[in-house]
Design a protein that fits this description.
Layout: H1 4-12, E1 19-20, H2 35-53, E2 57-63, H3 69-72, H4 82-89, H5 106-115, E3 123-128, E4 131-134, E5 137-141, H6 146-162, E6 167-171, H7 173-181, E7 187-189, H8 197-204
Helix pairs in contact: 1-2, 1-6
Length: 205
């Protein structure tokens, strides 16, 4: 039976080289000792809250970043926004898993700004629900590999079965290719990074 718990449980089991799995891996420099458990709880809370809200849209980005999913456990959400999520969703389920200060990435800021203008808040996800980094450079983002996309496709497919989305938006070409590969009809919008903010907003609108 598909549940938010089964989605989170499947993510824990995925182990790939040069890819930080926030739901099982510990960053000794920045994390609290219970950080993986807190990130699992954050994601579970997020899925449970969104299941109650019944989102009609799914927005899929490429992968987690070193300032976003790697630290918070949530797609496109830095730890600086977790307190705000508790207030927005009237819960105490979101906790900060890190010991060190954080900064919001520009991609997350652009996406959230656009999402908050929608009639209903979409559900955010990453094609790769981990942080792909360069070998020996754990805090540098890199493009995802085909093997990583393939490893996370079953989780994405189960997410689509768990929710009844009427619209799926792919943020960037990598997300679009991933969705097409699993037979999902989606709408492509320009990724907001590298000067694409205006095109992203126009695409979403």
């Amino acid at each position: 039976m598909l549940t938010p718990e089964s989605i989170v449980g499947a993510l824990i089991e995925i182990v790939l080289p040069d890819c930080f799995n926030p739901y099982r891996d510990l960053d000794s420099l920045h994390d609290r000792l219970d950080a993986p458990a807190l990130r699992r709880r954050n994601l579970l809370t997020y899925l449970q809250v969104m299941a109650q809200l019944g989102p009609s849209e799914l927005w899929v980005a490429e992968s987690g970043s070193h300032t976003g999913t790697r630290r918070s456990g949530l797609p496109l959400v830095p730890t600086t926004e977790l307190t705000g999520l508790n207030e927005r969703f009237a819960t105490t389920g979101f906790a900060v898993p890190t010991r060190t200060s954080d900064r919001a990435g520009m991609t997350a800021a652009f996406v959230w700004q656009a999402a908050l203008e929608r009639p209903n808040l979409p559900l955010f996800w990453n094609a790769v629900m981990a942080h792909p980094h360069r070998a020996g450079q754990p805090y540098h983002n890199r493009s995802v590999r085909r093997t990583e996309l393939t490893a996370y496709q079953p989780v994405l497919q189960n997410l689509l079965k768990l929710f009844s989305f009427t619209t799926v938006i792919a943020i960037g070409r990598v997300a679009e290719r991933t969705l097409v590969d699993v037979g999902i009809s989606c709408r492509y919008v320009r990724h907001p990074a590298q000067g694409g903010a205006r095109a992203f907003r126009e695409g979403v609108e």
